[in-house]
Write a structure and sequence with these properties.
The structure is a single chain. The protein has a single domain, classed as Beta-galactosidase, Chain A, domain 5 (Distorted Sandwich). The protein has four helices and 19 strands. It has helices spanning about 5-10, 195-200, 250-255, 290-299; strands at about 20-25, 30-35, 40-45, 55-60, 60-65, 80-85, 100-110, 115-125, 135-145, 150-155, 160-165, 170-175, 185-190, 205-215, 215-225, 235, 240-245, 265, 270-280.
């Protein structure tokens, strides 16, 4: 167990330490998430950042996210696990040209068989240069004891229209540890059997799994699309370690083969998207990814 895990456990009630249980605790501008008494991740809400995000993501003692480095030159906006997208009313939130501000966060436990899962509900305001709200994001993140996260992301237009333009930069993203990326030996497999980033980039799929090694152990991250979303999403999966899923890039992801299909919300309208993020040990088979996908569908 890491030193951070030990320090946090000293402040957690004994009732939160049951094997597999999910619990939350606020520490300043961070919400610490534990699974079975061990730190799983921290949700950052501080105004020092341009958006909220989870980082690091731990599997046991091992962090599988790329470390945040203030001197990072390559895609410094890739931080842990996050929600953002380019080109909302022509503001680039993905590249952190616009600010996504957390305005509330609350949590609760949920029954998951013999163990307790948890739900983190956040409200984030996507701001323009003048600090006015462009769109309101209401996201519910259900965390199951097996580290399957179900994201329900709702975007609501406040007192004006909102337009999501066609872009490949979005929506639910993860930046993995360097050693896991395909360029360092990582493997990518889609539910349809397609292998590698080139075969899976920009494609529709029920799920895609990205597997690699950290300190000699094998870990995987699976992104899952839900059949009830308003359109099938596409995957932005790169050999350098970026992994994301989005419905907002029909033209961008097909390199012009499909027409752009921007999404327009009139004032007061909203749209909800559901995605799964599954963290597992071992490769796709050992991690029972298909079983986790069925669990996601049943949520």
């Amino acid at each position: 167990m890491t030193r951070l895990s030990v320090l946090l456990l000293l402040f957690l009630p004994a009732g939160l330490l049951d094997a597999g249980d999910v619990a939350f605790q606020k520490k300043g501008d961070e919400i610490v998430v534990t699974v079975g008494g061990e730190v799983f991740s921290r949700y950052h809400t501080s105004s020092e950042w341009k958006k909220p995000f989870f980082d690091p993501v731990f599997m046991g003692d091992t962090a599988i996210t790329r470390p945040i480095d203030p001197n990072q030159k390559e895609h410094p906006h890739h931080k842990g696990l996050w929600v953002s997208v380019d080109e909302v009313n022509e503001i680039d939130y993905w590249g952190e040209k616009g600010v996504i501000k957390n305005v509330s966060a609350k949590w609760s436990t949920t029954a998951c068989g013999k163990e307790n899962g948890g739900r983190l509900q956040v409200v984030n305001h996507w701001l323009d240069d003048a600090g006015k709200t462009v769109v309101i994001e209401q996201t519910s993140i259900h965390i199951a004891p097996n580290k399957l996260l179900t994201y329900d992301i709702t975007f609501k237009a406040p007192g004006h229209d909102v337009e999501f333009l066609d872009t490949k930069e979005g929506l639910l993203g993860f930046r993995m540890a360097h050693s896991m990326r395909e360029s360092e030996g990582g493997r990518v497999l889609g539910a349809n059997g397609k292998k590698g980033t080139k075969e899976n980039w920009g494609r529709h799929n029920q799920w895609i799994d990205y597997v690699g090694e950290v300190d000699g152990e094998t870990f995987g991250i699976t992104l899952m699309d839900h059949p009830d979303n308003f359109r099938k999403s596409r995957y932005h999966v790169r050999n350098y370690g970026l992994f994301s899923i989005s419905p907002f890039g029909e033209k961008a992801y097909t390199q012009g083969k499909e027409e752009a299909k921007p999404v327009h919300l009139k004032a007061g309208e909203s749209i909800t998207l559901r995605y799964g993020v599954y963290f597992h040990k071992g490769d796709t088979d050992a991690g029972e990814v298909e079983k986790a996908y069925q669990q996601f569908l049943a949520e």
